[in-house]
């Protein structure tokens, strides 16, 4: 049973527009959520994170929103750039251990 | 200067062989991991070591054996390779920081294993 779900396998967005990637989770004990970006033939790279005690975290063009009541988080990229084309993974962490629980990823394609 | 380096990047081998993948991190992190990315692109944790001690050992065949000679190295040895072992294997490291701040993982670039 997947505890972290990314229901959109892919997303296509026009350059300059906003990209919104979504992630749902089932375990209310998760205390940290992270987004990773992955290019082909490379390892995932850390993008942005949010603690469960917050509802928003911003870093440049990237903002993560957390809605604990809905068990939902989203990553907003504004404005979208061609270099943002990659697979984005959502991950969640339990307070009690080191393990990250991963979503299946969403492939973001930025169209020129 | 690569933070998490794993070798080799590509590995093609025949069924039944034994092979090793090496991983080294120069970040001073306490915890290292091995992940497998399967054909459906899921990232699945296999093992985790914290200061050379095994802390996560997911259900993987016992043909897979991790070895951590020191906290900067975590190698993965695979015996009697099977076709289903073909995947991309990622090494990662992390540093847990108190006060609820978690720095996330730093991943290596992956090893694409192909068993023929």
Describe the structure.
- The complex is a heterodimer of chains A (about 110) and B (about 120).
- Chain A is mainly β and about 110 residues long.
- Chain A contains no helices and eleven strands.
- In chain A, strands 2, 4, 5, 9, 10 and 11 form a six-stranded mixed sheet that branches.
- Chain A is globular and about 45 Å long.
- Chain A starts with a strand and ends with a strand.
- Chain B is mainly β and about 120 residues long.
- Chain B contains no helices and eleven strands.
- In chain B, the strands form two sheets. In chain B, strands 2, 4, 5, 6, 9, 10 and 11 form a seven-stranded mixed sheet that branches. A four-stranded antiparallel sheet of chain B has the order 1-3-8-7, with no helix packed on it.
- In chain B, a hairpin with a 5-residue loop joins strand 4 and strand 5.
- The radius of gyration of chain B is 14 Å and the shape is globular.
- In chain B, about 30% of the residues are buried.
- At the A-B interface, strand 4, strand 5 and strand 9 of A face strand 5, strand 9 and strand 10 of B.
List the helices and strands and how they pair.
The complex is a heterodimer of chains A (112) and B (116).
Chain A: E1 4-5, E2 10-14, E3 19-25, E4 30-38, E5 45-51, E6 56-59, E7 62-67, E8 72-77, E9 86-94, E10 100-102, E11 106-111
Parallel strand pairs in A: 2-11
Antiparallel strand pairs in A: 1-3, 3-8, 4-5, 4-9, 6-7, 7-8, 9-10, 9-11
Chain B: E1 4-7, E2 10-13, E3 19-25, E4 31-37, E5 43-50, E6 53-57, E7 64-70, E8 73-78, E9 87-96, E10 102-107, E11 111-115
Parallel strand pairs in B: 2-11
Antiparallel strand pairs in B: 1-3, 3-8, 4-5, 4-9, 5-6, 7-8, 9-10, 9-11
Summed up, the helix count of chain A is 0
Mean pLDDT of chain B: 89
Query: In DSSP terms, counting alpha (H) and pi (I) runs of 4 or more, how many helices of chain B?
Result: 0
Tell me about the largest β-sheet of chain B: 7 strands, mixed
Level of helix content of chain A?
under 10%
**Regions of chain B with pLDDT < 50 over 5+ consecutive residues?**
none
Using the alpha-carbon principal axes, give the shape of chain B. Answer: globular
The total beta strand count of chain B reads 11
C-alpha termini separation of chain A: 38 Å
> End-to-end span of chain B in angstroms?
33 Å
User: Average pLDDT across residues of chain A?
Assistant: 93
**Residue share in β-strands of chain B:** over 45%
Low-confidence stretches of chain A: none
Helix/strand class of chain A: mainly beta
